[in-house]
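Exam prep: given the inputs below (a chain plus heme C), describe the expected output before reading on.
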Amino acid sequence: MAIVVITLLFGACKYDFILPEEIPDPNDPNTDEVKFSEQVLPIFTNNNNCTACHDTGGQIPDLTAGNAYNAINNTRYLNSVNPEQSRIYTVAHPDTDGHKQKKYTATQAAVILTWIKQGAKNN
Ligand code: HEC
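Solution:
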């Protein structure tokens, strides 16, 4: 019984250390670096969010884990001069009605834009 109680207490304490998900601010040059592999790619692949259609041999760009970076690392999808005009950001942006199949959440859009503004690294 004591072990169960201690385990529960320990388990309960752990939750106190989980921080709420941070939303990066694309306009803050000091915002934490967004990692493509950890933050951008999961937007495309988790629950087949985008890869349901944007898979290899399917709709372009191919947003699957092994191909997404190379598929979007070009001037069709990224605009390094005007990051807000990058197609990978605008097409699925929640405020546009171009791509009705799927939209980013506001948080996901902020993650994508911050990543582009930070140089769209394969990090
Ligand atoms: C249900 C299928 C489907 C899903 C899911 C989907 N898309 Fe698409 N997407 C399409 C189709 C079809 C097109 C081409 C026609 C159009 O633009 O509506 C397209 C076009 C695009 C384009 C423009 C491609 C180009 O070269 O012009 C981008 C960028 C894009 N999608 C990004 C995304 C992202 C990011 C997600 C996930 C948030 C996503 N899509 C989810 C079907 C889908």
